[in-house]
Amino acid sequence: xxxxxxxxxxxxxxxxxxxxxxxxxxxxxxxxxxxxxxxxxxxxxxxxxxxxxxxxxxxxxxxxxxxxxxxxxxxxxxxxxxxxxxxxxxxxxxxxxxxxxxxxxxxxxxxxxxxxxxx
Length: 119
Fold this sequence. Notes:
119 residues, mainly alpha, 6 helices, globular
């Protein structure tokens, strides 16, 4: 099975998820699970400190958008989807980016102890 072969992924998914209830559950809950995972990854230490670069606006950093494991996780999935298919993968990558931004914003507002309860 090729890692970036979209047809093989769909064939595997179709063979594994034939039950309509299972398909509905995956459709409804995959993105919320990804979002809440990003909320928890927000509290990992930054992989790189952006404050020394200078071209990143301080408002961006003050909002909690840091290059941590949450960003890396969203970037990995976004690039993976783009490698599978350019058009729909680009949309999925955009959703991954939106989830990272939203999860970072929610995590900053909630704090760790309350974010853990949301998760």
